[in-house]
Amino acid sequence: MSLSELIKSFQCQKILKSNPQTKSVVLLGQISKSNDAIITIEKSHFVTPDESYDVASSVEQTLEINHNDIYYWSNSILKQDLEENPGAKLNLIYPATETHIRKYGEQPHHYVVETPQMYKDYAVPYIESMKGDRIKWVYNILFEGKESETFVHHDKDLQTGFVLLPDMKWDTINLDTLYLCCIVNRTDISSVRDLNESHVQWLIDLQQRLRKLTFEKYSVEADQLRIFAHYHPSYYHFHLHIVNIKHPGLGNGIAVGKAILLDDIIENIQLAGDYYQKKNIGFLLGENHGLWQIEGYRKSHEERQ
Ligand code: M7G
C-alpha cells in the first residue's frame, strides 16, 4: 500500500501527544486489525521568509475574530503547496511496535544519574536486546542502498566511513529546520559509552567533514550548526545529529539531559581517554522507557536519591 492509502485506512484510537508549542500531534491507531500505527503531524514553519514575503498573496482567506482601537486579530488560511510550501509534515510508523508506542506516549520523566556500574549491570544487556530488528533501518541505509537517493555523502570505508543524509525529522525544504543525520559505518559503537581515546582523531576529522559537506550542499555555515549525540539514544548504533541552531527541535531532543555536543565529547575523551567509561551520566528517562522498566536499574537510581 502507498503512504496515502495507508493514511486513508488509519483509524485513530488515542492521542498519544499534543503540543501547542511545536504545533504537533502524535496519534495511535490501527491500519489493519492486528497492526498498530503511529502518525505524527507537525505544522510546518514558514519557508525561510524574508523582506520579499508577499503577505497579500500568501494569505488566502481571513476571518476576523475581533478588533479594538488599533488592534485586529483573525484566523487565516495560508496558501500552501506540496513541493515548496507544505502546510504540515506527516510521519507514519507502521507496523508500530510496543517500544514505539511507549516512546511516543505522554509520560512522567525522571532525572537519572547513571553510574558505570548501572550501565554495566543493566544498560549493556538492555542495549544488546535493542539491536537486531530495531536498527534494521540503519543497516538498510548503510549496506542496502535504502534512501541512497537522498544521501549528502557516503564514504564506504568500513572503519572510518559514514553516511550523511536528511533525518526523517526534516521536511528537506526549510533550511531553518535543517536536520541531518550522520550514521557511521562501523558497528562496534553503541553510544558515547563506547568512545575512548582511540576515537579522538576520527571524531575530529568526522566533525570537520560534516561541517564542510553541509556547507557545500546547503550553504549553512559551520557556526550555524549544532552537532551532537543523544544519551541514551533511541537506536544503539553510533550516529550524530546535525541541526540548524535556529531549530529548537521537537520534544527534548536538543535539551541538556539528552543531547551532548560532539565538541564536548571530543574534548572529554582528549582529557581522559576513559571518560565515558568512568563517568556518571545524568539524563532524562521517561517511565515508559525500557531502562525504567528494569527493576535493578530503577532501584539503583532510587538508592542514589
Ligand atoms: P536517536 O537519538 O537514536 O533517537 O536518533 P531519537 O532522536 O528519535 O530519540 C535517531 C535519529 O535518526 C533521529 O533523529 C530520527 O529522526 C532519525 N531516524 C530514525 N529512523 C527510523 C530514520 C529513518 O528510517 N531514516 C532517516 N533518514 N532517519 C531516521
UniProtKB/TrEMBL annotation:
It is found in: Cytoplasm. Keywords: Cytoplasm, Phosphoprotein. It comes from Suhomyces tanzawaensis NRRL Y-17324. Belongs to the HIT family. The keyword Cell membrane does not apply. One of its GO terms (biological process) is deadenylation-dependent decapping of nuclear-transcribed mRNA. This is Trehalase-associated protein. InterPro entries: DcpS/DCS2, Histidine_triad_CS, HIT-like_sf, Scavenger_mRNA_decap_enz_N. Substrate binds at residues 137, 147, 167, 169, 230-241. GO terms for cellular component: nucleus; P-body. The keyword tRNA processing does not apply. GO terms for molecular function: 5'-(N(7)-methyl 5'-triphosphoguanosine)-[mRNA] diphosphatase activity; RNA 7-methylguanosine cap binding. PROSITE patterns: HIT_1. The active site is at residue 239.
